[in-house]
Amino acid sequence: MSDLHSLNEAINKRTGRKMAASIAIALLLLALIFTSITFWMAGFAVIVVIAVSFAMHELTNALKSHGIEILSKFLILSSVTVLASVWFDGQSALQTYLPIIFLINILILLAKGPENFIARASASLFALIYLALLPAFIILLARDSDGFALITILVLLVGLNDTFAFFTGVLIGKNKMSPTLSPKKSWEGFIGGAVFTAIGASMAFYYLLEKPWWLGLAMGILGSLAATAGDLIESGIKRDIGIKDMSSLLPGHGGMLDRLDSAIITAPVFWIFLELTKAI
């Protein structure tokens, strides 16, 4: 037992996370996702809306701490509106509601005065793209006739990449990928994540979507790149603001945005890939 405790402490020190809590929360989230997509896909959409709302709250609070005041409650309501509209109306809802919401947001900000208007307007547009437009592709995948298979593959893309990049990096990682953005990420970890994600995606495409395995292999590589990019983008936000985690909502993970960062970039890449290859 003492050896296991020492190993756990060593991993915690190396990763900067409490691994036991992290694994427990990850398993709970996976159980919630797969229960909802198995029995009630609309329930999964509700979970996505709630998760994104928390993430938007974390982002607006982080920006506020950095001196950028934006309309937190309005942006949360905007995310809910966009995601709910996409669930009911599909892709066309993005073209209808996002421009209107952004225009209303800009006018409200302008009414508050010209001071830091460009910074506030730019931050608001970023928040809407990052946490309304991009997560909407998760909803688009879920409402598809193959929604169960598509969300399962999305979870595999993100989960396999994060898991195997993490463990490969911990075990053999030496060459830093981006020391200024994410010092713990290594090229060895990235390669490990990409290899296992490509293998998992090729099997998932073949067995779940009945598509060629090599198509899944390509998506696995793209998914690994997208998931890594998503993590680095959020790391860039946190580095700029000067925080480690967006919040302490999820023990071992940080905030909700810390958990969603890879998925919200991978989902649109996955959706676009499916659109481009649907004839295959």
List the helices and strands and how they pair.
Layout: H1 2-15, H2 19-39, H3 41-65, H4 72-89, H5 92-111, H6 117-133, H7 136-142, H8 147-172, E1 176-178, E2 182-186, H9 187-208, H10 213-241, H11 256-260, H12 263-276
Antiparallel strand pairs: 1-2
Helix pairs in contact: 2-3, 2-8, 3-4, 3-6, 4-5, 4-6, 4-7, 5-6, 7-12, 8-9, 8-10, 8-12, 9-10, 10-12
Task: Summarize this structure as a short list of keywords or feature phrases.
280 residues; mainly alpha; 2 domains; two-stranded antiparallel ribbon; 3% strand
Write a short abstract of this structure.
This protein has 280 residues and is an all-alpha fold.
Please tell me the total number of domains.
Answer: 2
Helix content: over 70%
The rounded distance between the terminal residues' Cα atoms is: 53 Å
Going by helix content, strand content and strand pairing, the class is mainly alpha
Tell me, what's the shape? globular
User: Quick check: average pLDDT?
Assistant: 91
Summarize the main sheet.
2 strands, antiparallel
